[in-house]
Design goal:
The chain is an alpha/beta fold and 245 residues long. The radius of gyration is 17 Å and the shape is globular. Helix content is 42%, strand content 15%. The chain starts with 9 loop residues before the first strand and ends in a 9-residue tail after the last strand.
């Protein structure tokens, strides 16, 4: 198992009070980083993640923020910088979805899905970047979706597909813009993961991606073995093709 050396690094995982984000926090903390559990409203769950990480011997704090609000993002980073230091590793994991036909969605829901997935990734990356540039080292990993690379579209959950396509475009742009600055920017894009509410009739390898599958890909991008890898999208989809399921 790839285990990047992240001692003396500060890692922020957005949307990490539960689910995949919680798994990513534990995985990165095990590599030696001090970790930040960002949450919007799940304060009890976030506190439980912090307690569990500290019981495992790592340092962690929980920070409340609305990643779609620039002022809230700034306030969260200011607290992190005051208590731990500048963010070296950013995993943009937060993102709502709306598994309904696009014509049945309210504009509020449409905007929420786009804002949390795409604007949240943009705002957190923009806020983390200056310190990474000063340090001439940084790692940004954005959580995407396999359909964005494969060009799959569906009338169900369409704003999520749109947002994740934008996340991949942003990933590649930011990677190109920081290619000489000691920073890598990559994406990890699962298909169906273990906590999905609905599953297709058939799945590659007979199962969804586990949180551990995705965490392993994130750890790779944080490792020195991936120091020359930037602007890439690693799909964690078991070999899925749209026409095959």
């Amino acid at each position: 198992m790839i285990q990047p050396a992240l001692e003396d690094r500060i890692a922020l995982v957005t949307g990490s009070a539960h689910g995949l984000g919680s798994e990513l926090v534990h995985s990165i903390a095990a590599c030696g980083a001090d970790v930040v559990v960002q949450y919007h409203s799940s304060d009890d769950a976030a506190a439980a993640v912090v307690d569990a990480v500290e019981e495992e011997g790592s340092n962690a704090i929980a920070v409340q923020a609305d990643v779609t609000d620039p002022a809230s993002v700034d306030a969260a980073f200011e607290r992190i910088e005051a208590e731990l230091g500048s963010v070296d590793v950013l995993v943009n994991n937060v993102g709502d979805f709306a598994p309904s036909h696009w014509s049945e969605l309210s504009l509020e829901t449409w905007n929420r899905v786009l804002h949390t997935n795409l604007n949240g990734t943009y705002l957190c990356s923009r806020r983390a970047l200056p310190a990474m540039l000063d340090a001439e080292w940084g790692r940004i990993v954005n959580i995407g979706y396999a359909s964005a690379e494969k060009g799959m579209v569906s009338p169900k959950n369409f704003p999520y597909f749109v947002a994740k396509t934008g996340v991949l475009m942003f990933t590649r742009m930011l990677a190109a813009d920081t290619q000489d600055d000691g920073i890598t920017v990559n994406a990890v894009s699962p298909y169906v993961i273990e906590n999905s509410e609905e599953f297709p009739d058939t799945l590659p390898r007979g199962r969804p991606a586990s949180f551990a599958d995705i965490a392993g890909a994130v750890r790779y991008f944080l490792s020195e073995e991936a120091a020359y890898v930037s602007g890439e999208n690693l799909e964690i989809d078991g070999g899925w093709l749209p026409e095959s399921v």
